[in-house]
Structures are given as structure tokens and as C-alpha cells.
């Protein structure tokens, strides 16, 4: 039986489908894929339908080809496909089957080609992006290196370097006098009582005020001044406190107990200086008699509350008159001039407690201390040492007025029989007999509820040692009691033994002390002073610096002497020379005149203190690069004050304040530790980065255009 022949629907009607097929050579490459292998004869209607379907398939293939070849880079491919459709390989004029099959193959190849080119394009873009990132990173690295090199050069050039100087008769190694006026509140400068100190401000450099450390009492702050450490770090956490390890009480008025080295857990500046070979003389500074550390000061004067102010003047000037170790060979039999002289002046604090900060007596005491300073400065000038010796005048805290109307009875708050030890004053650190966490929580809850009653609301706050405000830096020491009552500034907590509050208020009794401190160290009435002048402070006369805390004083004095800070470190961040922010307004100096009870700024703040009756200083000539040390600050400072109830609130100076306009423009003042250094770096870096971004964007845009051009031109090659 002969094999079936291929059915050809395009054969003429007279053609016999069962006869011989003259086109059998097209069986392998011209057959439609969807044609059955053994077709049955079809009618003319079926053939017409078949023809129509075939034409529609070819039209669809043409549309697909037209769409795929619409892009310029596919133009050459489309031309090649059109040539194939016109009779190239795989096509025959007698059959459209080859055209359809070839179209599908070409479409598949077209898709594969597009995918391959897309992968190549992505690889090129990824490579370019990687190169772009590497260039940016390298550029920023070079930029940062250039910045660091510039800043290092500037710091080396502007850093204060103490030098040996001569007053014409003797050589002077770097010398600094540090004077502490205990209890001298910052706004005491605005009472027309301190012509010498105000003249000193106009000749030197100072902030509007200096912040003490918490708690704002004498012993902790005087040790902070000479160690640069917060009280929680140096161990003197109050004027009175209990040490659970030693099982002993520290009390500031009992020298036999308090002047023992185990209480003082830090390196004071006189030890730092002596270890560096710098001789020191300490006059009545608190802690100097405690034999702290491995080496003693060369000269130590014991505390004497009754010492006359003139004796202090003679003592300081007498030390300056001693021969220098540079003038003659060293001799164990000859007293040598000290380079660090630190003196403590307790008078203002003593009379502030006794009479109050707004009394006639305290005004007289403030004037007396100012006259003492005048004699010291006159003695310095007469020895031709004004531009040779550094003088730094500080205080440790301010003072607030007390009143029986602001007393709180401790027994009204809790059962005092539960308490074993009471630390501090006017703060109350409570150490209960039962120190378990459960009992402490109960006491805390009881006291907290009492503080929220209408009788006591706003008069005090309650804190566990573990939840003290972070800004106090008063929690990381076992000498700090586990539970604290902190009265609002101007209030005082008393026991029945000290005073019956109800009886005092009805009977018109007066509470003593009349002045008190120890409150929140950021309250306006607790503000202290810092004023400096000398070769270590080569700024324009009357310059102002930003407010800082007294933890900075230790480092400042070390820098003025040219000695390294102690090995254990400190909490200070500033370094010399200062970065100034302008000049103090007018001639009044820093600070604001405050109400003694509320802390509010008084109208008398606008009064300009009297000028000194005679000139006691001459302005230091500026260094060659001194103009690069100062800089301008146009920011308005937010300051603290109080409302009528004594609550701490904030205020902002008038918008018209133009104090910054007088400042000199210049560079950063010192090392990376400076508080303002980070801000300067950020501002500088932002500007450089913006410029770098613009440059890199231009390079990237140009590179993108080149890549696009290459793709277009590449599609027209071959």
C-alpha cells in the first residue's frame, strides 16, 4: 500500500490529492507545524477558512516584528528580518509557512539579544557606580585629611605656650594666682560695690557666670575646682556625709575627722603641679591640709577663719617676692618662689550665712573683699608683673535668702525614727536603718505623696539615688545616700530639734542661717564667677566666653602653667586659649542683678558699676595671631530664672541684643576637647561635602551621557 501523500490545500481543484506530489522536497522544511500528518480531504469552504487563518497569523507576526524593531538600536535587526521575509533562507514564494516559523525563531533570538544587552548595560552601570563611590570616598578622605592637617596646624600655632619672662629684676617661670571668694554670687558684681573686680573684668576674660557643681556647697565645689571632677567622682559629696565602707561621718567643721587622706579620692592641682616640678603655695584652700597623694605642696597655710584680709595680701605678695629657681642655683636652704599660688577667702560666705545676701553687713563685706583685690593687683602692678603673672578669680557658689515662711518640718513628711543617718544640708540625704529595696521604695512613695499635697507642692522634690537628674552627676558613689529630699531654692528643711516651724511662723521668730546655698546648681541664685587675666589669656580686654561649669577650672589652670593634666583624667573639656564670643556689653561686666528671694532679674541690672578710682591694669598687647583665637557668636542664650513662686523657668534676651557684633572673627581656639570644636567641624565639613557633591554630580552626569551615546552608536555598528 503506497504511503499517504501530503495534502496541499493550495493545489488547483483538478489536482488529485492522492496522486504524485511534485513538491515532496518541501516536506521537511515547508510543512506547517499545526497541520495534521494524515489530513483528510477538505471542502473549498474549509480551504478559504484555512487561508484566512494563515494570513491573520502572518499579520500578527508582522505586528510583533514591527513593535520589537521600533527602537533605533534594533533597526539593523529589523532590516535583516525584512530581507528574510522577502525570500531569504527559510522562506519560499510558494509557502508562507516558512515565514511564520522563521518569524517565531527571530522573535526568540530578538528577546535573547535584548536580555543579554540589558545584562551588559547593568554590569556597566554597576561598575560605574562602584567607581563613583570609590572616587567620592577617596575625595572625602583627602578632604578630611586636609581639614585635620589645617586644624592641627592652627592648634599648634594658636595654643598657649607658657614662656619664661622677666620683670626687669627677676626671671619668672609661668605663674598663676588662683583666688577663691567663697559665696560670691555672680550678680554681686552689679551692686556698685566692686570697682576693682569690675575693672578686672574689663581688662580680662570671663563668662556671664560660672556654674557650680551639685550640690552647691563649699567643700564639694572647692575640691571640684582643683580636681576638675564632679563630687560623685572625687568623693567629697557634701559638707557632711556618711561613708558606709569606713563606717564614719565626714563633717566639714571637724578638721580632726575631715582632714584625713582617705576622704579625698582625687589628685588636686597642687599634687599635679608638684609632680611636674612646679612649686606650689596653698593658702587655706579646703583639703590642702589632708596630706593627699604622694607629694605635698611646698607651702601650706592652715585654715584660720579669723585671719585679716590684709594678711592674705601680704602672704601672696610675699611669695611673689621670693627668688626664682631660674635666678640662682638650687639650694635646700633657700625658699623658692612658687609658680602656683592658691588662696581661699571665706568672708563673703560667712557673712552671707550670718546676715543674708541682701543685708547691710554683706554689702560691707563685699566691698572689703574688693579692696583686698585692689591691694593685690596694685602690688602686682608695682612689681611690673601685670603682663607676666596670670590671675584667676573664682567663687564656688551663690547664696539665697531664707525665711520662716519657707521652712518645711521634716517630721511632717515621715517618721524620723526610721532614719539612721541624715547627710547634707540644706539637702537631706536619708539613710534608713532598713536599707532593703522594698523599704526604700515604701519611703520614697510616702515622701513623694507628701510632696504632692497642697501644703508642700512645689517646695521640694524626692529622688532615689538611682533616679537623680543626670545633669546633677550625683549618683555613682556609695557615699551618696540612697534617698534624697531636695528643697526648692530658698526653702529649708528642719527638724523639731532645730526649729518648730508652726511656732516660729506664729511667733515671728527668725530662722538662721539668713543665707543658704546647696540647691540646684543651675538656679540663678547659685551662680558663681570666673574672671581671668594674664599672658595665658591673650584676648581683647573685656572679652566674653560661653558659660561653663567649674569642672573646667582645673584644666584651665594646668594649661596656664604649661603642665599636663593628672593621669586619672577629669570632667573638664576646655583648653587654652579660650574661644571668645564677643565683648561684655557696656562696662558693667558679666551677670545680671537678681532678686534675693525669687532669682528674678531686677531693673537695677541696667546700672553700670562704678569705675575703679585709679587705673590698676594696663591692657596686654595682643599676640600676633590673637585675632584668630576669637570668634563671633550671634546666638541668643537661653538663661534660667524663677517665677514668683521660686520655680525654675527659662528666659531669652531681647531680640535687639547686638553684643556679638563687637566680637572678633577668628579660628577655633584649641584642641578637640574644646566644647565648640565639634560644631566648627560640622559646619566646615557640611560646606565641603556640598561642594564635593556638586562636583561629583557633574562628573556622573557627563559619564552617563557618554554611556548613552555609546549605546546608541553601538546599535548602529556592524
Automatic annotation (TrEMBL):
Biased composition regions of type Low complexity, renumbered to the chain: 92-103
Record bears the keyword Membrane: yes
Feature: compositional bias, Acidic residues: 19-36
Residues spanning the signal sequence: none
Positions with biased composition (Basic residues): 70-80
Keyword Membrane assigned: yes
Molecular function via GO: nucleoside triphosphate diphosphatase activity; ribonucleoside triphosphate phosphatase activity
Region listing for Disordered, in residue ranges: 1-107, 647-669
Organism superkingdom: Eukaryota
Residue intervals passing through the bilayer: 126-147
Name of one Pfam family that matches: Phosphodiest
Compositional bias of kind Pro residues: 1-14
Keywords, ordered alphabetically: Membrane, Transmembrane, Transmembrane helix
Biased composition (Basic and acidic residues): 44-55, 659-668
GO biological process, one term: nucleoside triphosphate metabolic process
Record's protein name: Uncharacterized protein
Organism: Cryoendolithus antarcticus
Amino acid at each position: 500500500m503506497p504511503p499517504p501523500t501530503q495534502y496541499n490545500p493550495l493545489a488547483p481543484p483538478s489536482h488529485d490529492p492522492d496522486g504524485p506530489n511534485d513538491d515532496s522536497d518541501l516536506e521537511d522544511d515547508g510543512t506547517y507545524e499545526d497541520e495534521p500528518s494524515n489530513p483528510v480531504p477538505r471542502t473549498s469552504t474549509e480551504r478559504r477558512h484555512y487561508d484566512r487563518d494563515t494570513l491573520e497569523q502572518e499579520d500578527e507576526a508582522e505586528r510583533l516584528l514591527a513593535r520589537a524593531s521600533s527602537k533605533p538600536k534594533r533597526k539593523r535587526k529589523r532590516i535583516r528580518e525584512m530581507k528574510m521575509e522577502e525570500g531569504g533562507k527559510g522562506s519560499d514564494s510558494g509557502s508562507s509557512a516558512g515565514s511564520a516559523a522563521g518569524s517565531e525563531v527571530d522573535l526568540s533570538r530578538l528577546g535573547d539579544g535584548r536580555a543579554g544587552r540589558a545584562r551588559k548595560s547593568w554590569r556597566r552601570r554597576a561598575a560605574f557606580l562602584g567607581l563613583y563611590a570609590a572616587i567620592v570616598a577617596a575625595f572625602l578622605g583627602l578632604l578630611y585629611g586636609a581639614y585635620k592637617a589645617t586644624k592641627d596646624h592652627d592648634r599648634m600655632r594658636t595654643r598657649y605656650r607658657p614662656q619664661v619672662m622677666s620683670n626687669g629684676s627677676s626671671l619668672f617661670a609661668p605663674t598663676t594666682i588662683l583666688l577663691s571668694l567663697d559665696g560670691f554670687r555672680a550678680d554681686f558684681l552689679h551692686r556698685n560695690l566692686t570697682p576693682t573686680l569690675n575693672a578686672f573684668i574689663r581688662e580680662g576674660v570671663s563668662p556671664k557666670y560660672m556654674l557650680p557643681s551639685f550640690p552647691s556647697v563649699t567643700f564639694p565645689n572647692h575640691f571640684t575646682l582643683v580636681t576638675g571632677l564632679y563630687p560623685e567622682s572625687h568623693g567629697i559629696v557634701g559638707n557632711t556625709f556618711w561613708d558606709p565602707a569606713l563606717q564614719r561621718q565626714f563633717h566639714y567643721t571637724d578638721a580632726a575627722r575631715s582632714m584625713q587622706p582617705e576622704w579625698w579620692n582625687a589628685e588636686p592641682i597642687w599634687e599635679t603641679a608638684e609632680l611636674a616640678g612646679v612649686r606650689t603655695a596653698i593658702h587655706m584652700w579646703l583639703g590642702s591640709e589632708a596630706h593627699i597623694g604622694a607629694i605635698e605642696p611646698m607651702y601650706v597655710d592652715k585654715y584660720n577663719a579669723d585671719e585679716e584680709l590684709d594678711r592674705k595680701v601680704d602672704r601672696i605678695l610675699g611669695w611673689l617676692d621670693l627668688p626664682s629657681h631660674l635666678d640662682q642655683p638650687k639650694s635646700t636652704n633657700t625658699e623658692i618662689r612658687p609658680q602656683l599660688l592658691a588662696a581661699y577667702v571665706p568672708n563673703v560666705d560667712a557673712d552671707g550665712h550670718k546676715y543674708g545676701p541682701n543685708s547691710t553687713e554683706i554689702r560691707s563685706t563685699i566691698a572689703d573683699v574688693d579692696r583686698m583685690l585692689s591691694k593685690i593687683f596694685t602690688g602686682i602692678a608695682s612689681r611690673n608683673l601685670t603682663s607676666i603673672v596670670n590671675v584667676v578669680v573664682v567663687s564656688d557658689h551663690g547664696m539665697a535668702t531664707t525665711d520662716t515662711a519657707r521652712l518645711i518640718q521634716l517630721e511632717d513628711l515621715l517618721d524620723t525614727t526610721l532614719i539612721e543617718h541624715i547627710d547634707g544640708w540644706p539637702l537631706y540625704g536619708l539613710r534608713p536603718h532598713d536599707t532593703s529595696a522594698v523599704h526604700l521604695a515604701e519611703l520614697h512613695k510616702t515622701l513623694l505623696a507628701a510632696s504632692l499635697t497642697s501644703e508642700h507642692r512645689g517646695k521640694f522634690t524626692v529622688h532615689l539615688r538611682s533616679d537623680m537628674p543626670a545633669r546633677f552627676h550625683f549618683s555613682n558613689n556609695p557615699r551618696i545616700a540612697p534617698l534624697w529630699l531636695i528643697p526648692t531654692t530658698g526653702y529649708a528643711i528642719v527638724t523639731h530639734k532645730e526649729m518648730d516651724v508652726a511656732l516660729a511662723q506664729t511667733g515671728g521668730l527668725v530662722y538662721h542661717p539668713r543665707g543658704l546655698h546647696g540647691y540646684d546648681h543651675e538656679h540663678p541664685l547659685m551662680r558663681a564667677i570666673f574672671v581671668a587675666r594674664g599672658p595665658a589669656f591673650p584676648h581683647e580686654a573685656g572679652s566674653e566666653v560661653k558659660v561653663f561649669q567649674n569642672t573646667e577650672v582645673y584644666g584651665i589652670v594646668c594649661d596656664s602653667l604649661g603642665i599636663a593634666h593628672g593621669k586619672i583624667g577629669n570632667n573638664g573639656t576646655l583648653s587654652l586659649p579660650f574661644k571668645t564670643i564677643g565683648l561684655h556689653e557696656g562696662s558693667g561686666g558679666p551677670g545680671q542683678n537678681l532678686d534675693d528671694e525669687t532669682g528674678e532679674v531686677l531693673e537695677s541690672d541696667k546700672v553700670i558699676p562704678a569705675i575703679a578710682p585709679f587705673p590698676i591694669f594696663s591692657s596686654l598687647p595682643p599676640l600676633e595671631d590673637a585675632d584668630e583665637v576669637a570668634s563671633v557668636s550671634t546666638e541668643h542664650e537661653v538663661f534660667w530664672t524663677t517665677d514668683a513662686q521660686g520655680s525654675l523657668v527659662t528666659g531669652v534676651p531681647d531680640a535687639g541684643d547686638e553684643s556679638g557684633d563687637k566680637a572678633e572673627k577668628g579660628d577655633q581656639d584649641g584642641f578637640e576637647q574644646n566644647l565648640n570644636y565639634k560644631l566648627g567641624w560640622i559646619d566646615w565639613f557640611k560646606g565641603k561635602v556640598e561642594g564635593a557633591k556638586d562636583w561629583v554630580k557633574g562628573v556622573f552626569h557627563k559619564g552617563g551621557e557618554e554611556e548613552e551615546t555609546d549605546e546608541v552608536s553601538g546599535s548602529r555598528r556592524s
